[in-house]
Amino acid sequence: MDSVVCSADELARLFGSNVTNANAAADFICSRFNTSDANFTATRYAVDNTYLLFSAYLVFSMQLGFAMLCAGSVRAKNTMNIMLTNVLDAATGGLFYYLFGFAFAFGGPSNGFIGKHNFGLKAIPSETFDYSNFLYQWAFAIAAAGITSGSIAERTQFVAYLIYSSFLTGFVYPVVSHWFWATDGWASAFNTDNLLFSSGVIDFAGSGVVHMVGGIAGFWGALIEGPRIGRFDHTGRSVSLRGHSASLVVLGTFLLWFGWYGFNPGSFNKILVAYTADSYNGQWSAVGRTAVTTTLAGCTAALTTLFGKRILSGHWNVTDVCNGLLGGFAAITAGCAVVEPWAAIICGFVAALVLIGCNKLAEKFKYDDPLEAAQLHGGCGAWGVIFTALFAREKYVAQIYGAGVNHGLFMGGGGRLLAAHVIQILVIIGWVSVTMGPLFLVLHKLKLLRISAEDEMAGMDLTRHGGFAYIYHDEEETQKQGIKLRKIEPSSTAPNNSSTV
């Protein structure tokens, strides 16, 4: 929305020679006009920044969702531990993203690989970024770290959490976000000189940038640590170590659902942008469409998982449905702003099948991820990247990224965008593997990664955090049916009224 300039000289000529002091009148009118125009410009910045801040608050609320989901998905004896790690993901990520991460991600002008300006938010606010941009991007960074914490839950030393979270939010994730989101990133659709077929990657809210990064990092952590004790019996058969609270899982899922309305629609960063002369056609409409596609993908994935797991296991399992719902959200995140609502239904349906298939592969190869985070965010995130390359609509792509960016294969755009997205998947897998894999391996070699078998059996709440979150008996012999909690009432001893003679 460009400002309109009022010229006093041009206005004075319109008054003609009969107008007394035409120049003075023109100056007066233009001064009032320019003042009003400046106020409208300030209002636009205020509206857009308020919208971005509100979206940042929604994304940050997802941390509570992650905490509740993780707490409900682990056994009761590790509840304090997993909730503390979620708190520290946000706190540690806040400092490291402030010091390094935001600069590595968006510190331009820079090269295509990594940003190099604005460390510690130097020179912020500027014409390009305000503090609201930092807050929003920080909320994304800690979401990636929260994904990883779920994969290595119930068996990881506390110091390892601090080290990996700092490294992920301060360096690994920001570099990936620079590649695909910064205006000078080598694969960014916002960069007209990008190296991917002169088109770049359409990963609007981060199926690859956020979900794949967190999921792949969690995959390496869980793989190097190995499965939890009792997860597979001596014959290699899978044994279910169920979380202790389906109620917390459902609560966390709904909080994540709510926060996703900041995660996906909020990624526009601004809302007061008109697309055409029609007063009703603007970015505000695209924001609403993005919320709709997000909703439909999640709902379809939840229902597909419900019936799919019913066929496979014979049960209507609420935990599986919640994971399916989140898998649909992770998948639609890349293309939420550039696809039609009907395409989002296809996205959610396939995402549920991808999640079920990844979980089957995890059992086959004895891979243990307590929250299915690597399968959900890594697998469904990768599908979301491919889905976008197939169904992105030309009109929506042009509105957001401008002319020249390729659209989906199935929408008449050819295969260039699909090729770019396959490259995106490969480079994310490669980058996270060569950074986070060696980090977890070094921690493992230094015996800083996994807790002892004794501590794992007793539970980290007791051995590492000073006590249990609940008073309960952990009956290990009932693991096949999940953890059973039984309240322990304080024992009361009758007073001894007899006296000693």
Textual characterization of the structure:
The chain has 501 residues and is mostly helical. The chain has a single domain, classed as Orthogonal Bundle (Ammonium transporter fold), CATH 1.10.3430.10. Helix content is 61%, strand content 0%. The longest helix has 52 residues. The radius of gyration is 27 Å and the shape is globular. The termini are far apart. The C terminus is likely disordered.
Domain tally = 1
Q: Main β-sheet, in a few words?
A: none
Q: What is the CATH topology?
A: Ammonium transporter fold
CATH architecture verdict:
Orthogonal Bundle
Overall pLDDT, averaged?
A: 88
Molecular shape: globular
Structural class: mainly alpha
The N- to C-terminal Cα distance equals 97 Å
Sequence stretches where pLDDT stays below 50 over 5 or more residues: 477-484, 487-501
Tell me the strand percentage band.
under 5%
The run of helices and strands is: HHHHHHHHHHHHHHH
CATH superfamily placement: Ammonium transporter AmtB like domains
Rg to the nearest angstrom? 27 Å
Measured as a percent range, the helix fraction is: 55-70%
Pfam families: Ammonium_transp
InterPro entries: Ammonium/urea_transptr (IPR029020), Ammonium_transpt (IPR001905), Ammonium_transpt_CS (IPR018047), NH4_transpt_AmtB-like_dom (IPR024041)
Main location: membrane
GO molecular function, one term: ammonium channel activity
